[in-house]
């Protein structure tokens, strides 16, 4: 079957009544065209379980059998009447690739087979790109795809055949302890993950920590990391062993709520070890209010900030002095931390003092394997028993991620114990050795 015939079959509208044969035909044609195994193409429908599709038919022949890698994807409801077959298949493939992005959802038995798992992921991602390319108008730019890690030769040939502009990047070796999932079950389209809201325990922890924090004083820095002068953001080049990692929690809402910092957290690192911590909560600016979403996600309530928060200018000054002359690490700072510092305080980072760990992660395509990364995923992957959506704890996670990317990962239990010990000294206002 030539490409034109495959496109016609794959994009054909499904019959209103007996739609399953059309979907089966599309899956079989797609498997044959993509270098898979058409004989394994199987789509079944049951009112109780929904549409079940075996995606192993799309795997390249070069990939060995992977019994622990469940190839089934499920669509709980029947396709819409006359919906094109490729629209249904793309939904199934998208859900499946999402399930393979995060090793924390994969069973430990797959650690040894990780190169083959990545080949499967890249093949399925390539098939998605092919179906996308087929949907474009002739004058539209070709689809661009970046695949991380091992890619089968047949996968590269598939992308070239349809004109997808593909680039291939190396991928960091996965950390074996990151594989924490149970035996894989069929991947369900539209299955939602936990909503990420702070539970009662996290709210109580925030309040207890806010009560315990002591006002600390640091020498006025002569080389501040942020200045009140607009300038381009220039990042630090090269690796560092001594640095400060920071993270902000902030409220971002409508004109009455505004964008303002609610918590600042930072850890100072020397030779790969945490030697000091910084943590403050920040009062809500006058004529503003903390939006409900921020309170639900972080567990930081407006009453807590009113009672235990520092005035914003004082908190920012302490934070800058704590950093001193260090190189400053953060995670995806362009997405929120730098804009809120600019908007609230008119502060701009000093040239050459920043390292964005999220950018480093994207370059090597680590754990999730695509640019869409999050600290929550990395926290699970690195095995850190820390709360999410807390500035201080996210700073620790960013430190752990940087160490992992630099090739000297820290045992999670040892890192958490070190952090807790240093943070306890900070609460007592005890001096810290930062040399």
From TrEMBL:
UniProt-listed CDD domains: DEDDh
Designated name of the protein: PolC-type DNA polymerase III
Pfam (any one): RNase_T
Domain of life of the native organism: Bacteria
Organism (species): Lacticaseibacillus suilingensis
SUPFAM superfamilies according to UniProt: Ribonuclease H-like
Domain Exonuclease: 242-411
């Amino acid at each position: 079957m030539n490409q034109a015939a495959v496109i016609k079959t794959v994009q054909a509208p499904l019959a209103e009544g007996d739609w399953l044969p059309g979907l089966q035909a599309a899956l079989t044609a797609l498997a044959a065209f993509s270098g898979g195994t058409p004989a394994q193409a199987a789509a079944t429908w049951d009112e109780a379980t929904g549409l079940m599709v075996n995606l192993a038919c799309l795997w390249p022949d070069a990939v060995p059998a992977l019994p622990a890698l469940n190839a089934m994807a499920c669509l709980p409801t029947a396709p819409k009447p006359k919906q094109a077959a490729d629209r249904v298949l793309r939904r199934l493939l998208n859900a499946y690739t999402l399930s393979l992005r995060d090793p924390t959802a994969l069973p430990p038995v797959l650690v040894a087979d990780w190169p083959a798992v990545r080949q499967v992921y890249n093949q399925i991602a390539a098939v998605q790109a092919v179906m996308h390319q087929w949907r474009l108008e002739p004058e539209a730019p070709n689809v661009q795809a970046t695949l991380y890690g091992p890619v089968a030769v047949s996968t590269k040939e598939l992308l070239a055949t349809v004109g997808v502009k593909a680039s291939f990047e190396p991928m960091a070796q996965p950390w074996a302890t990151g594989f924490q999932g149970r035996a894989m079950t069929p991947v369900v389209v539209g299955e939602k993950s936990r909503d990420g809201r702070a539970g009662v325990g996290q709210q109580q922890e925030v309040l207890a920590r806010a009560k315990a924090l002591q006002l600390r004083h640091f020498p006025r820095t002569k080389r501040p990391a942020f200045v009140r002068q607009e300038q381009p953001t220039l990042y630090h080049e090269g690796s560092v062993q001594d640095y400060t990692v920071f993270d902000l929690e902030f409220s971002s809402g409508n004109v009455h709520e505004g964008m303002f910092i609610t918590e600042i957290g930072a850890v100072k690192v020397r030779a790969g070890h945490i030697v000091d911590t910084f943590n403050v909560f920040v009062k809500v600016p006058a004529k503003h209010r903390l939006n409900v979403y921020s309170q639900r996600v972080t567990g930081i309530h407006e009453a807590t900030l009113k009672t235990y928060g520092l005035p914003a200018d004082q908190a920012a000054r302490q934070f800058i002095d704590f950093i001193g002359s260090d190189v400053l690490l953060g995670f995806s700072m362009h997405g929120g931390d730098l804009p809120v510092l600019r908007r609230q305080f008119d502060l701009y980072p000093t040239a050459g003092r920043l390292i964005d760990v999220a950018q480093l992660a994207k370059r090597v395509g680590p754990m999730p394997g695509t640019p869409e990364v999050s600290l929550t995923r990395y926290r699970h992957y690195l095995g850190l028993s820390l709360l999410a959506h807390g500035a201080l704890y996210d700073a620790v996670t960013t430190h752990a991620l940087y160490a992992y990317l630099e090739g000297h990962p820290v045992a999670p239990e040892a890192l958490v114990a070190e952090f807790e010990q240093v943070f306890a000294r900070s609460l007592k206002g005890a001096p810290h050795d930062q040399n």
